[in-house]
Every structure is written in C-alpha cells, then in structure tokens.
From TrEMBL:
It comes from Reyranella soli. This is DNA polymerase IV. The keyword Phosphoprotein does not apply. PROSITE patterns: UMUC. The record marks Y17 as: Substrate discrimination. The keyword Ligase does not apply. Residues 8-187 form the UmuC domain. Mg(2+) binds at D12, D105. It is found in: Cytoplasm. Belongs to the DNA polymerase type-Y family.
Length: 358
C-alpha cells in the first residue's frame, strides 16, 4: 500500500509585531515602523513600508535609522503579541489538532485529515486566513504542500496576504528554480560556501552526489540532498518541548566595570527564573551570553550534576561564568542568560538516546 501523501499548511503572519502596532495605533498605518529600541539594540520586526528602505529584522537600530530617517520606533509589547498568537492558535485548532508552532507568528498544520472534513488544503488555508483577519484585524500568508520544507517555502512566495500551493508533481521543479540562499535551513554562511562550490540554485544542488555533499557539509549533506529533490519526511509535531529558556538585555550604556556586569547578569536572569517558577521547568546547563560594544559575541556554559532548583544557584552559576571574561578588554553591550537540558520539576531525568488534491 502506497504511503499517504500528506497535506501540510504553513501559516506565517505578515510583519506580525509591526502589524499589531499599526493595528492598535492608526497614526502608524502607512508609515515605516520598526519594533525595537531606537538608540540601542536591534530591529525585532519591520513593517512592509520600512522594508522598502532595506530595514530588516535583526538589523542594528542605528543602521535601520540611517537607511530610513523617517522610521518610527515602537517598544515591543510581548503581552499583546502573545494574546494575539493565542487567538490565532485557537483558530488553527478548530481545523486540526496537529499544530506545530514555530514562534508566536508562524506554525505548521497537518490537515491530511481535518476536523471540518474539507477535501482541499488550499480551501482550509484560505478560510483560516479569513478567520484570522476577521478576529484579529491582521493578515497572514500561507504555503500549502506535501511536506514542511515546501510549505514553508511556499508561504513566502506571495507575501503579504497571499498563498501558494506546491502539489507533489511540481515540488522538485519549484526547488530547482530557487537560489539556495532562499532555502529554509540554509543560512548566509552555508549559502556562501555553496556558491563557492558552484552551487547557486536548487538545480545546482540536485546535481551533486550525496557523497560530495556529506564531504563538504557533514551530516547536513543528507538533508541538502533530500530537499534538492523536494523531499522532507518530518512530521508535524504538536506541543514540541522547549529545548531552552533564556532572556537577554541590551543596556542603554555599555558596561565597563566588573560590578556593573555582574549586576547586569543578575538582573537579566529574573525573567528566566520567573518562567521556571511559573511552568515548573528546570535546567542543568547554564549559559551566559556576552556581546561586546563591537558586536563580538562570546558564550560561557556549565552543566551541573543536578538541575538548578533556586534563583540563588542560577545567579551564582551565571556570575561565576561571566567572571571568566574579566579583566574586560572592551565594554559590554548585551548580556543574556539561558537554561538548557530542561526537565519538569519532579520528573526523572531521561537517559540520553496515494495522490491527493490540494
């Protein structure tokens, strides 16, 4: 019996944080908006008006302002974004229990069988997008295909407020025409390496042997070999467990004294420990992130024999880790603290180990 062809939808909200701000403040509509701090930090989200000037998420705020002098900076309101995300997820769950959130503003849905008994995934995506607009006043884009990789590529194809279907017979061809830099899972450095090897498009990638790709890209070579052919066997996994919990802060002024840095670390971990208390999540690996004034980033980690069960232990471990960078050679711009190797309080630690219409 042939394996059933899945119907996967990737929903991606359009400029989510910035769109929420424009929705709630009519005076911002039609203007270039960036969510983030104007003086320090980075752009967390940019409206489509700002993107026309080259403003992008993860860009330093100062750079964004140079590109667009009229850029309006708005402080993030995560409580609002989380509430809107909850409303959107409720809509998803009316169609399928197989919802895999990737972040507050995007998710995979497996609608091979669905709660509405709708035969076409494209109709489901269109209806979900209409429901999101009706309930939240925000637009979303959708990609529909037979696997997660292609669905995610498709959702970006007609942004904003559009949707694209890639049926099984067109999957490999769709990949062939795309630059490898646009592939989800291929970052800028990997794309540059591929370009140096003469691999510029999906078609170029497909001509490479598995042995060649494993030689130059290690275990990732197997993944690249598959996606060049439009193949991806990953399932939609609801309620995926978190791998880490963390928080970081960019300071208004760079820190130059040891006491300032230690105090900064202590202030950052409040959010981390608050999450642990609220959810019962504990972690054994503590990581401290340090970003210097010149944007160089270093990290320090320590794995403990037992989970961190108190704020005092988390602070003591974090401060000890950050002391390894003293004496300071340059001032500190950002500090972050995160916990990995997570488990729920009280739980034991696990030992390591047919064609469908679209």
């Amino acid at each position: 019996m042939a394996e059933e062809i899945r119907k996967i939808i990737h929903i991606d909200m359009d400029a989510f944080y910035a769109s929420v701000e424009q929705r709630d403040a009519p005076e911002l509509r039609g203007k270039p908006v960036a969510v983030g701090g104007r003086q320090r930090g980075v752009v967390m989200a940019a409206s489509y008006e700002a993107r026309k000037f080259g403003v992008r998420s993860a860009m330093p705020s100062a750079t964004a302002h140079r590109l667009c002098a009229e850029l309006v900076f708005v402080k993030p309101r995560f409580d609002v974004y989380k509430e809107v995300s909850r409303q959107i997820r409720e809509i998803f769950l009316e169609y399928t229990p197989l919802v895999e959130p990737l972040s507050l503003d995007e998710a995979y849905l497996d609608v091979t069988t669905n709660l509405k008994n709708m035969p076409l995934a494209s109709d489901i995506a269109r209806e979900i997008r209409a429901r999101i607009l009706e309930r939240t006043g925000l637009t979303a884009s959708a990609g529909i295909s037979y696997n997660k990789f292609l669905a995610k590529l498709a959702s970006d194809h007609r942004k904003p407020n559009g949707q694209t279907v890639i049926p099984p017979e067109k999957g490999a061809r769709f990949v062939e025409d795309l630059p490898v830099a646009k592939f989800h899972g291929i970052g800028p450095k990997t794309a540059e390496k591929m370009n140096r090897l003469g691999i510029h498009t999906g078609a170029d990638l497909r001509t490479q042997s598995l042995e060649f790709l494993e030689q130059y890209f290690g275990k990732a070579g197997t993944w690249y070999f598959a996606i060049a052919r439009g193949q991806d066997d990953r399932r939609v996994v609801p309620n995926r467990p978190r791998k880490s919990v963390g928080s970081e802060t960019t300071f208004m002024e760079d820190l130059g004294r040891q006491a300032e840095v230690e105090q900064g670390v202590a202030s950052v971990l409040d959010d981390v420990w608050s999450y642990c208390e609220r959810t019962g999540v504990l972690g054994r690996t503590v990581t401290v992130k340090i970003k210097y004034a010149d944007f160089q980033i270093v990290t320090r980690s320590r794995t403990l024999n037992e989970p961190v069960t108190s704020r005092e232990l988390l602070e003591r471990t974090s401060v000890e880790l950050v002391r390894s960078i003293f004496p300071l050679e340059k001032r500190v711009r950002l500090l972050g603290v995160s916990l990995h190797n997570l488990q729920i309080r009280g739980e034991p630690v696990a030992e390591p180990q047919m064609t469908l219409e679209f």
